[in-house]
Specification:
The protein is of the alpha/beta class. About 50% of the residues lie in helices and about 10% in strands. The radius of gyration is 49 Å and the shape is rod-shaped.
Length: about 270
């Protein structure tokens, strides 16, 4: 058996204690390195996740903004189309070249002179209604009324009268056109700029038209509606604009007015 002195034993014990201490320190260092790596990895992962979520959020916001802008553009476009359709396509019609419309052979064209009182030669761009009048001069003919409108050109002084119509229908059903339908006539007050005026002769104070006048009025009104591309329902009386009893018989007899409009709607040559 090996024997050691007390000094040797103490020195050996000290060396063993030192070795144990160093071994424990090495183990702690390794553990600390492993733990720290895992912590850094978790921290790095969490940071990367946050950056990824922020990136996705920013991309989603940008996409939503683009979509909202696109929808706004589409809505504005559709609103513009709708407004344009209403403005230019009122009553299912559209603007026609009024100057291109040729009068049928059953209408005599005898235009009055251009003048400031009865034919100002102002252009009419579109027609919205056909306005029916009566001449309020019992027994007068279409020719006499046409010449009256033409004679207004010779007026002088402060008491000048302005009056005219596009068409005049006589007692025998003859039709004279006094003004081109692409020009305004002085007949329907604030509706001169977008309406065609038809004056009708009558034999007496009642204002009732002869059968011939009435038949020509139905035919002419239907033809004008078709040529100007407006509805056959767009027929009004001078009365409907100003409240004036014109045409008198159709104002006094509402049933006769409704019957006339029905005949126009149903008319076909």
């Amino acid at each position: 058996m090996e024997r050691f002195s007390r000094i040797e034993i103490e020195q050996r014990s000290q060396r063993e204690s030192l070795d144990e201490y160093q071994r424990r320190n090495r183990n702690r260092s390794r553990l600390s390195g492993l733990t720290g790596g895992r912590t850094d990895s978790r921290s790095s992962g969490r940071g990367s996740g946050r950056r990824s979520r922020r990136g996705r959020s920013a991309a989603s916001g940008a996409a939503a903004s683009v979509l909202a802008f696109g929808l706004a553009v589409i809505i504005a476009f559709l609103a513009g189309v709708g407004a344009g359709w209403y403005r230019w396509g009122r009553m299912g019609g559209y603007r026609v070249n009024l100057a291109s419309i040729q009068a049928p052979d059953w209408v005599e064209q005898d235009f009055i002179r251009k003048n400031i009182y009865s034919r100002p030669a102002a252009s009419m761009r579109e027609v919205k209604d056909i306005v029916i009048h009566y001449v309020a001069n019992p027994g007068s003919t279409a020719r006499q009324n046409r010449n009256y409108f033409d004679g207004l050109a010779d007026q002088k002084g402060e008491n000048a009268v302005s009056a005219s119509a596009h068409f005049i229908i006589g007692l025998d059903g003859e039709i004279i056109q006094c003004i081109p339908i692409n020009e305004i006539a002085y007949a329907s007050n604030n509706r001169n700029s977008d309406s065609i005026a038809i004056e009708c002769c009558h034999p007496d104070e009642t204002g009732q038209f002869t059968e011939e006048t009435y038949a020509s009025l139905v035919k002419l009104t239907a033809w004008l509606c078709d040529e100007t591309k407006i509805s056959r329902r767009n027929i009004i009386r001078h009365y409907d604009i100003t409240g004036k009893a014109c045409p008198k018989y159709f104002v006094d007899h509402e049933d006769a007015w409704k019957a006339f409009k029905k005949e126009v709607r149903e008319f076909s040559e």
